Amino acid sequence: AQTVTQSQPEMSVQEAETVTLSCTYDTSESDYYLFWYKQPPSRQMILVIRQEAYKQQNATENRFSVNFQKAAKSFSLKISDSQLGDAAMYFCAYRIGGTSYGKLTFGQGTILTVHP
Amino acid sequence: DVKVTQSSRYLVKRTGEKVFLECVQDMDHENMFWYRQDPGLGLRLIYFSYDVKMKEKGDIPEGYSVSREKKERFSLILESASTNQTSMYLCAGGRYNEQFFGPGTRLTVL
Asked: Is the CATH code 2.60.40.10 the one for domain A3-115?
């Protein structure tokens, strides 16, 4: 079975600084996708960024980027120029490729605090 | 904007009651999911559905059932609520590369 591990229950960062959230996963599959989701306090969870395992290039979305290390099974999220609105719970998630109906396996989550 | 709505934000029920959690999506997505979210455990998949009247067990289906009579609606049923089902329940709809989540229902079973 696939597992996703986020070893940092809580992280904090100063506004305008950079922070990296860690995620490791375990799978024997070669075709899969990785995601970071953001859950702001009392608000709906939204997708931050997505990485296809077959792509060597790391995904980026504005201030958010990932460091995808396939051999190490590591998928970290870097947030640059942190803003107060980045404060949230962040979840790393995995999906097997093919006809999996999009089922996701989530990590435990990391609470990110942004200090002004 | 795509939208997933859940019938209640907060719900308090008694042990042994039958509980219905409703989820509606307006995205015409085939796939819908029910998760529970607990501190330190992340989100765990209870059930999912890939078409009307079709359902599959997730990782923790015990004590739950689901119903999908219409494409836009996916219901989670607790046949006889127990205190260990106190949790946040999240519904999601989506295709392969993104899931859209509802706001969640915080269920307390006394």
From this structure: yes
